[in-house]
């Protein structure tokens, strides 16, 4: 039996890992909330961002956290361009086509990364990758503490953008009633592209927070997005507060399952929760009925 201190340390470190899961889920739930589709390219785009962080560190020696600053606008521009000039035109206004286009985009990006980097796993080693922060008798991972703070800050900033800016109000209007928003002069294709870009910008932050403690290969994004999708379902499709709280909860569950069941079974609790939520409360914690 583990001591209470070890269990509490595992729970707190899981809470901080869950904050990064929440960032990935934020982009996924934001795109769903406005476009009402699941972006199958989300994992591949996360992988691209992680390789960008690794490349900046390996080639230029730039700290992963500093890479976030230029990477956020770059990923926003990439997301905006993909939605405005690829996903939107290729879908011809059909949601089913959008799913197929994003799936095809995911396959293409993954294969491009395989061609460029092969299937090798890459890591980076910073001075603080294994540093810990002492909280009384508890030892917490320094990169994960940074991740928790950044996740809460990004969630708060995104909430402010959506609720206190004209663009945010336009995004919420399009999410509620696309036709009505179009009739009052809102450029719906532009808002779709902005939303897609914001989702990709969240991935840029998540990539910078992940790389000091995780590895990257061309297929790693899919594993994170599976967890993120569970977070979105738990928190409620389209709910930003739900994505944050769901991510924190899922991180704790994964960490405690890994402690008691072993690392190889660490994610079993996540998918049991996923099934339970679908059976008991399909709308999630903060989701609204259609």
Termini Cα gap: 46 Å
Helix count, DSSP H or I runs of 4 or more residues = 11
For the largest beta sheet, what order do the strands appear in spatially? 1-2
Spell the H/E element sequence.
HHHHEEHHHHHHH
State the name of the first-level CATH class: Mainly Alpha
Q: What level of helicity do the residues show?
A: over 70%
Q: Would you identify the regions where 5 or more consecutive residues have pLDDT less than 50?
A: none
CATH topology: ABC transporter involved in vitamin B12 uptake, BtuC
Characterize the largest beta sheet: strand count, sense, and whether it forms a barrel.
Answer: 2 strands, antiparallel
Protein name: Branched-chain amino acid ABC transporter, permease component
Transmembrane segments: 12-34, 40-58, 65-86, 98-117, 138-162, 191-211, 223-253, 259-280
Pfam family, one: BPD_transp_2
Main location: membrane
């Amino acid at each position: 039996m583990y001591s209470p201190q070890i269990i509490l340390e595992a729970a707190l470190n899981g809470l901080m890992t869950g904050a990064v899961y929440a960032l990935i889920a934020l982009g996924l739930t934001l795109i769903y909330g406005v476009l009402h589709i699941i972006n199958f390219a989300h994992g591949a785009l996360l992988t691209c961002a992680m390789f960008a962080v690794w490349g900046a560190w390996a080639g230029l020696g730039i700290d992963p956290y500093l890479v976030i600053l230029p990477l956020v606008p770059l990923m926003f521009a990439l997301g905006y361009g993909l939605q405005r000039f690829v996903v939107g035109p290729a879908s011809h206004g059909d949601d089913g086509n959008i799913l197929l286009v994003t799936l095809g985009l995911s396959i293409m990006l993954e294969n491009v990364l395989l061609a460029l980097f092969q299937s090798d796993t890459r890591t980076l080693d910073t001075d603080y990758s294994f540093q810990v922060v002492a909280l009384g008798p508890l030892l917490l991972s320094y990169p994960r503490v940074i991740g928790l703070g950044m996740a809460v800050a990004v969630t708060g900033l995104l909430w402010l953008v959506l609720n206190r800016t004209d663009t945010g109000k336009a995004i919420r209007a399009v999410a509620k009633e696309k036709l009505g928003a179009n009739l009052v002069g809102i450029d719906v294709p532009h808002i779709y592209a902005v939303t897609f870009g914001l989702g990709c910008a969240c991935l840029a932050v998540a990539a910078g927070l992940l790389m000091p403690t995780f590895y990257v290969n061309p297929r790693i994004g899919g594993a994170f997005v599976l967890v993120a999708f569970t977070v979105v379902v738990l928190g409620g499709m389209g709910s930003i507060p739900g994505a944050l709280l769901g991510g924190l909860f899922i991180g704790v569950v994964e960490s405690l399952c890994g402690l008691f069941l072993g690392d190889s079974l660490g994610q079993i609790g996540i998918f049991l929760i996923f099934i339970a939520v679908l059976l008991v409360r399909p709308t999630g914690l903060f989701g609204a009925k259609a």
